Amino acid sequence: MMSMLLKTPFLLVLFPFLMALVATAKDSPEPPIFKKTPTAEADLIQLQDDFLEILPEARKAVVCVKFKNSSGSGVIVSSDGLVLTAGHVSGKPDQKMHVILEDGRKLEAVTLGRSDFADSGLIQITDTNAVDIPYRPMAPSDKAVMGDWVFSMGHPNGYNKARGSVVRLGRIISKRSARMRTDCKIVMGDSGGPLFNFDGEVIGIHSRIGRIDTENYHCPIEAYHADMGALQAGSVVSRQGGYLGAAVRKEAEGLIIRLIVEGSAAEKAGLEIGDIVLSVKDEKCLDVDEWKTRIGVHEIGERIQLKIERDGEVLDFDVKLAKRPRR
Amino acid sequence: MNIIPRLLLPLFLAFGLSSGAQEKLDEDKRLNGKEVLERFESAKKVMDASVVEVVNGKGDLLAFGTVVSKDQVLTKASVLIAQEGIQFKMPGGKTITPKRVDRLANNDLALFDIPDGDLTPVSFVPAKDFKQGAWLVTRSLKEPGIMVGVKAANNRGIKKQRGVIGVVLGADGAEVGGVTVIDVDRDGGASEAGILKGDVITAIEGLVITKRADLVAEITKHEPGKLLKMKISRNDVEIDKEVRLGHREHVFAQFNRIAKISGPTSKRKSGFEEIIQHDIPLSVVEMGGPMLNVKGECIGINISRINRSENFALPTEVVQHFLTTTDPEPPAVVAKPPVKPDLPPSVVITPKPVPAKPAPEEAVVDPMTDLDGNEVEPYELVE
């Protein structure tokens, strides 16, 4: 009986599934604690232990950024004093600022470049007294993903020596190339401060408060990697590349065009309000951030392919991006 | 284990996941989401057994109370001022009338005796080794009855703060009709409110003012963060102004923006020997309950909502000092509870929580702001 079974095609069909079974059994190890929703009180304690181990190291690199009458936060990412902060904190390149370290040292610094698109900014410590500067590395691109437990640090409401820097725990709610959302609480003064992973690497920089206080926005580290050359050179990376002129809104049916700017490339190409966006450059476009990013990386004069659905029909558009029309 | 699902699993793996990752994390899986809160089993047990609700005669919730021994409860003192008919809704549902123990309300604590009490107290452990980043659990009015966060910063004492509105005062008296403002600090509440050099302050918080000393005395009564109602006279026209009281040390503009988006905060924010700071999103009536670690041990009592991202708790050491100091002097600032006949224990009053006012922060935070409070375009529309 058995030998007959072996000869039948039945086992041939079953075989790949058996292999996959073995494979999935072997290759599904427990995710690390900072990647999972806790399933028992013991998980909470493990998460806490890991957090308490990395936090004192991460803390050392957090700085308060002081300029004129205002203050924000930042993080030192190299031994020679390169500081990541928010673009709206560093502002104009080549301005003098001060950074206050964890140990109380107040060091002179100068602003480098920023990106208005990503709200990223760089500051360089210039103080000749600066020796043994503590720092934490930038995480590599694409390491942080939705669901990761992370922590935000900064100096809300300005520098307070007795209080020190402030930490809040949370998880990544969503992540796109130019924006990352977490439920870490942040508030005025936290701008420019670091979001850390559980390896103590910088995965983001605080940018904006959200509509509800448990959803806040950070510039992801990927934006710093992408623009590092320009930022270090003191450039201002503008948010305006090639201009399409179509505003989209996420609705039940998907991403819908809800506004066409008069005189824009979108209008000239024949895009219409109500069009459902199926893909941009042959890739699915899930939300507004994707839309902005995919289009925003192109220069004036470049062409992009859009696939849209209108009245049940799928239409292809090849749009040449133009300058922003004058209002 | 049923073999069939396991056989089908590879099929699902092949086809089911190609639709791509989810766009955003389920609310249930977030920091204060259901799935996470459910794991804090030890702490939840303690909360259910050792926390009371403090209500007034009208049934308004004033604070939580922490059971500290089989017949004693601690709560926040300043919320009891001028309140009548204080009662406790106990674990289990019964409502009782407690007896205030006369004690100096140091650190804003108030102690009550529960006659014939047989309660389950919290178990205090030293807070001095409790580290920044460690889990903290508090009582919440929202399901499932707890909220969590971490210890956010270094412990420190908070001295009584003197607030400033940022003006230099000049001539006063009956002829002037108030107190003249001879200079305005650009980085202060008076400037923010539009008070100018030459304005005459004529009233503050409903009090008519003619002397400088009276103005200063009234300002001194309030804590930084308070929005003071003032009247000024300019070219013989009386104008109403709301002036945010600031700190000497803090940059006013930033402090003001945080205050604007914070909603109701505790009136008393200072005069604490030592505090633990945390960011658990509590409302102003959710003070007075215990702060538990992940094991359910008590490391302090929640005492003040400072702003949208900051709350203070008194650590174990401060609480125990209060409990063991049997100072018989009557509390300095708290009115004696009115003499009323005790309600018979069989009368059960269902306390109504204070109806949730729409938080003022809704109006100010919407649309999205950057962290300096500047409005930025919403994320929905893109040009």
Helicity range of chain A: 10-25%
Spatial sequence of strands, sheet with the most strands of chain B = 5-4-1-2-3-7-6
Estimated share of beta-strand residues of chain B: 25-35%
| Shape descriptor of chain B | globular
Top-tier CATH class of the domain at 41-157 and 271-324 in chain B: Mainly Beta
Strand content of chain A: 25-35%
Q: Please, how many domains of chain A? A: 2
CATH topology-level name of the largest domain in chain A:
Thrombin, subunit H
Q: State the oligomer.
A: heterodimer
Poorly predicted runs of 5 or more residues of chain B = 11-21, 329-367, 378-383
Radius of gyration of chain B: 25 Å
For the largest beta-sheet of chain A, the strand count, sense and barrel status come to: 6 strands, antiparallel, barrel
Provide the structure class of chain A.
alpha+beta
Largest sheet of chain B: 7 strands, antiparallel
Helicity range of chain B: 10-25%
Number of helices of chain B: 8
* C-alpha geometry of chain A: globular
Largest interface: A-B, 80 and 68 residues
